[in-house]
Amino acid sequence: MFKYLLVAVISYLFGSIPWALVIGKVFYHKDIRQYGSGNLGASNAGRVLGKPAAIAVTVLDALKAVISMAIASLISKDTNLIAFAGVACCIGHCFPVFAQFKGGKAVATTYGYFLGLVIFVNHNFFWGFLFPAIAFFVILYLTRIVSVSSMAAVGLEVLASFLIIKNPLPVSLCLLVIWAFIVYRHRSNIERIKNGTESRVKWMGPLPGEKK
What we know:
The protein has one domain (2-195). It is mainly alpha-helical. The chain has helices at 2-15, 19-27, 42-49, 51-75, 79-94, 107-122, 125-143, 146-165, 169-185, 187-195.
């Protein structure tokens, strides 16, 4: 129990580092919480600060999960504990103690979690990491909606965890919890999708079949 408590605190604190806020203030002199969606995630960082900032935030947010899981693996080789570390990190990202508990939606951090599972748990790089990454970009190409791609790709990875990778049950359940959490964090996006007002990415051009 002590190990789980220790890992929960460490991973939550790592997850709480608001890289979008740090990069915005240090390099752009902007608090991105005051622009765009106000979200401390890579999508809003890209919207407000530009593509280089979005890439940096994505990588750093993903690394939070990998580092948290690496620390957990040093404390114990228990795969359940390592998986738990990733969940605690994602919670910290969404509710960061260093940013008034108002964070991002944990998509980039979840992909870091996928990578952490590949490194420390299942060692299945294709199904554990490449598959959800490919699924994300395929769905994004078909819909041009980041929120749809994020929720759907993570959901597909949950199915892969249960049916193909066959991770230990607690690990797959952790993934299911993270997917449910991501869907919950996207509830405003879901409302906009229902209303047909959700924004679409422009850099991919028009939807397949649409006229330019």
